[in-house]
Amino acid sequence: MKKVKDLSINKNTKIAELIKQFSQAGGFTAKKLADGAEIWQAMKKDKDCKVFFSFPACICATGTRGIIKDMVKNKQVDVLITTCGTLDHDLARLWKFYCQGRFDADDKELHKQGINRLGNVFVPNECYGEVLENNMTPILDKLYSKKKEWSTRDLVWAFGEAISKHKNKEESILYWAWKNNIPVFIPGPMDGSWGSQLWMFWQQHRDFKINLFEDEQELANLVFEAKKSGALMLGGGISKHHTIWWNQFRGGLDYAVQITTAPESDGSLSGARTKEAISWGKITEKAKHITIEGDATVLLPLLVNS
Fold it and tell me: Which of 20, 139, 232, 263 has the smallest count of CB within 10 Å of its CB?
């Protein structure tokens, strides 16, 4: 039995100090965040552990993109598994910008003005679909001249290299993934504007191919070669499932931290707690694991800087 201690903070309190206090505060999500930070640090320090990071696209429309970029830049993770929209937002914000908005905005009026609302972020048409089409086509033309068939991993790296001369390149997740040779897998490559642009390009180049089997083979190799594996997972969906699905074939993850806002009662993968994955063999019975309930845009910056 450990005594619950009161928090004591001031303007000079650092994040790491606050998280340490959370571990002693004994209460609710604060304690879970502290436990998650401990597991996160353990998986990073374990030299035998390959660290997977899965996340949804939506947070890349926010300033949280900068946190993910820094994680890739500083090589805190070994493998990224995400959705097509991550490429949408990362590239669109490289060439244009998104705007701060409101949850309670008039969506009919926004539609008339050509502004898309993503939560409380405003995404003007010219800063999303239009800018992606204008900038992706020249890149695809050059890549197509080199080879006709690509895995998503290779294509993402090729885009990272293609933007390497852009003045804002260091703001990009894709740039740092290419720069640091960190593989990025997009198991659902058509579910976004980036994928739609690939489809549009295919209309005039029918021998242009996306080889998902090559992605799966490389992902399988990474899993089978890992002495240990750990995962930081935001939300759920195809990104989380691809992470835990492949790791079951090596006996499960040895470390797992999930941040989610979803309830467990609806049976969704986003709501499924890490302990549920043990029953599937996707997380080992002896694994250090935790599910932290809360908004990743708040909790991720605290966790990774703990």
Answer: 263
Give the pLDDT confidence of 140-150 residue by residue, as tens digits: 999 999 999 99
DSSP, res 192? S
For 212-256, write each residue's pLDDT tens digit: 999 999 999 999 999 999 999 999 999 999 999 999 999 999 999
* Distance between CA atoms of residues 306 and 33, nearest Å: 10
How far apart are alpha carbons 120 and 240 in whole angstroms?
Answer: 24
Q: What is the pLDDT of residues 157-182, one digit of tens each?
A: 999 999 999 999 999 999 999 999 99
Task: List b or e across 97-127, with b for residues whose CB sees 16 or more CB atoms inside 10 angstroms.
Answer: ebeebeeeeeeeebeeeebbbbeebbbbeeb
Instruction: List phi, psi (to 5°) of 26.
Output: 70, 10
Strands (E), 149-199: 149-150, 184-185
> What is the Cα gyration radius of the chain?
20
Q: Are 160 and 179 in contact (CB under 8 A)?
A: yes
> In sequence order, what are the residues at sequence separation of 6 or more whose Cβ sits closer than 8 angstroms to the Cβ of residue 123?
61, 92, 98, 99, 115, 116, 117
Give the C-alpha distances (Å, rounded to integers) separating 120 from 33, 99, 103, 129, 177. Answer: 25, 9, 5, 19, 28
Instruction: Determine the Cα angle at 186 with ends 241 and 114, to 5°.
Output: 110
The two structure tokens encoding residue 233: 């997972």
**Whole-Å CA distances, 39 to 25, 42, 284:** 18, 5, 14
Is 47 tagged catalytic? Answer: no
Write down the catalytic residue from 50, 282, 286, 288: 282
